[in-house]
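Much of our argument rests on the idea that a fold can be written as discrete symbols. In the encoding step, the backbone of a single protein was reduced to a row of integers, each denoting a local shape. This step matters because it turns folding into a mapping between discrete strings. For completeness, the protein is quoted in full, as a sequence line and a line of structure tokens:
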Amino acid sequence: MIIVIGSINLDLIANVDRLPSPGETVGGSSFATAPGGKGANQALAAARAGAPVRMVGAVGKDSFAAEALALLRDGKVDLSGVAETFASTGTALIMVGDDGENIIAVVPGANASVVPGDLSKAFLKKGDVVLLQHEIPLATVDAALDQARVAGAITVLNTAPFQGEAAAFLGKADYAVANETEFDLYGEALSLNGRDRAARMRDYAGKTGRTIVVTLGGDGVMAATPSDFLTVPAMKITPVDTVGAGDTFCGYFAASLSSGLALDKALARASAAGSLACLKPGAQPAIPLAKDVDQALQETH
């Protein structure tokens, strides 16, 4: 079982002629809503990868909640661990200019009410894979890492969005997954040694005894374990929209580990899924199905 403990949002997306200056009103060309939140995105990716998934999180008692959960329901994700609170459902207010630039305001809402006491809804047991991110209170993430270890579960921590104080518990995760920018920032916070990123990754793995995975966009992915260093190239694609690619990677990576794949195979499958997610617009709608990922892997090997 994959247990995702994390955020659930509804994205409100306006396409505008250009991004406004403070106090300015500009014209818009379209508006759309879409389910989002890193936790929900990763839960859906793990489900589409073929794994059984339970989501632990919170939404509001408002009209946004049903839409925020719609694709998770369609994906047969167990939502019994999702609480209803009096806070609003988490929202991301996104404006996209004609030049592709965007500005985003994220209102955590109900996500901020996911507290360590809610972890009892995870029903953690030996062999589970627990997938975490930084869009709920960090005290809850820290507590989940501790409780998962006691239960004998495997932990995958996506270090996004970057929060410096999370450096204190990063090394508790069996697998930490960061993009290159996040890893460089955590490397500074943790005073990692090494002339280049690969050397600092090795230093992290040696000091913590855990595995660090760093995604490099079109350059693929690297991973350092206490005893090995792996690199996986990215699929050659022309991206349409990279939103949600990292979340797709994390969901597929957790599902692949849960199914018993070796680390190199899990990284390759997750990387292929992340690449395919870039071929369609949006986050959750673009997450590929397992059959499409496995076909793409066969074609590239």
Remarks:
- The helical segments are 38-48, 63-74, 138-151, 180-189, 197-208, 245-258, 263-277, 290-300.
- The two ends are 29 Å apart (CA to CA).
